[in-house]
Design brief:
The chain is of the alpha+beta class. About 30% of the residues lie in helices and about 20% in strands.
Length: about 375
């Protein structure tokens, strides 16, 4: 079905009436770009006091849409549930009678429209979408009843994605949480027990390298090549997995993975993330951003992962990485010197049992598909708008 396309300025008003700092009272809700997640992942405004804000702001209410014009590719677009003031890098949009607010929100936040907004932005270091360009954005205009039907479908999809994020967060947190319950805090040493350096219960600590030729040697089939993006906290992700050919694999034979290894990201933005291997990864290789930690006794694999996933140990690893001479990095010797509670085999077995039981429970909950902002188009779960 084809619907008429109508410019945004014919359907809604972009409100840019300034509020001076002296007119902002204690208890006012304030929204900056930092309070809006990409693709509407979160909306966390703050409350400010009189005199706290030093520059002019825009006013908004619960009938508007907030559109982040700075770096529009981040899709910081939400429908607020309260009134307040916002940064002037956020444009309040007030829908008129011909367009449903949630329908308009979802359309402006669709990947194609976000890409179009990014293309229309001006400025190199701090690209902004001019309000005049936003005003000329063409919106498909089905009947209001159809708009509301479509918005309802997309609202339901958003709820599913929130469930997905919550489920993944629980999966990430589980290894460290169970470890804390059984062994206490490995950094603060909250339990009166013996501690040992990680090097004493491991037989290998080492990182890989990028094969000669870099990404040009990646293949769809061959030896799995593990990168930092595959390592989540407590969970290995196949997303973005690549393979390398036999020649490249031979270059990295010293970092061949076994099923009982632990992976730790040692450089880059995801430094300190940690998970374990399994039999599906035996024979794989790792790149230079990932360290292999191999227990001297395979029964300690889950235990080591849990110790490294504990929130305080994770924070300690981040501090170590920040102290790197030239870049964020964790060295082999720093890993080997990390002290963990000295486990018995029985304790390690019990930890593994509890972890498996917890993971099985969480994985029994269906996890919806990924957010639309990461898809090429709106996908099968989204009705076509126009």
């Amino acid at each position: 079905m084809s619907w008429p396309m109508v410019a945004l300025h014919e359907l809604a008003e972009i409100e840019r009436r300034a509020v001076e700092p002296r007119d902002i009272r204690t208890g006012t809700t304030y929204v900056g770009l930092e309070h809006i997640g990409s693709w509407g992942a979160f909306f966390a405004p703050i409350t400010v006091s009189a005199g706290e804000l030093a520059s002019n702001k825009f006013r908004f209410d619960s009938e508007t849409i907030l559109y982040g014009k700075l770096r529009p590719y981040l899709a910081k677009i939400v429908a607020p549930d309260r009134s307040g003031v916002c940064s002037t890098d956020i444009l309040p949009i007030r829908p008129g009678k011909r367009v449903d607010r949630m329908f308009l929100l979802h359309y402006l936040r669709s990947p194609a429209q976000v890409a179009e907004a990014a293309n229309k932005s001006t400025g190199i270091n701090l690209p902004r979408l001019p309000p005049s360009e936003l005003a000329t954005t063409e919106i498909p205009l089905p009947p209001l009843a159809e708009q509301r039907r479509i918005a309802g479908i997309l609202d339901a999809a958003d709820a599913l994605r929130r469930r997905r994020r919550e489920a993944l967060a629980l999966l990430d947190a589980l290894p460290g949480a169970i470890f804390a319950e059984m062994f206490g805090d490995p950094v603060e040493r909250s339990r009166d027990r013996e501690f040992v350096p990680l090097g004493e219960i491991t037989s290998k600590v080492g990182s890989g390298a990028t094969p000669r030729g870099g990404a040009t040697v990646y293949r769809e089939k061959g030896t799995k090549f593990i990168r930092s993006m595959n390592v989540r906290d407590g969970i290995f992700s196949e997303e973005g997995m690549v393979c390398i050919d036999d020649a490249a694999a031979r270059q990295l034979s010293n970092v061949e993975v076994t099923e009982n290894d632990v992976f730790l990201n040692i450089t880059g933005a995801s430094v300190a993330r940690c998970c374990r291997s399994d039999d599906s990864l035996s024979g794989a290789r790792v790149n230079q951003h990932v360290a292999i930690i191999r227990p001297s006794n395979a029964i300690f694999t889950d235990f080591i992962m849990g110790a490294l996933c504990h929130p305080h140990m994770n924070a300690n690893l981040l501090r170590i990485a920040e102290a790197g001479a030239t870049r964020q990095a964790i060295t082999k010797s720093e890993i080997e010197r990390l002290e963990v509670p000295a486990p018995s085999e029985h304790e390690a077995e019990e930890y593994s049992r509890r972890l498996r039981a917890g993971l099985e429970t969480l994985r029994a909950v269906p996890i919806p598909c990924e957010a639309p902002g990461q898809d090429a188009d709106m996908g099968d779960e989204y009705p076509r708008l126009g």
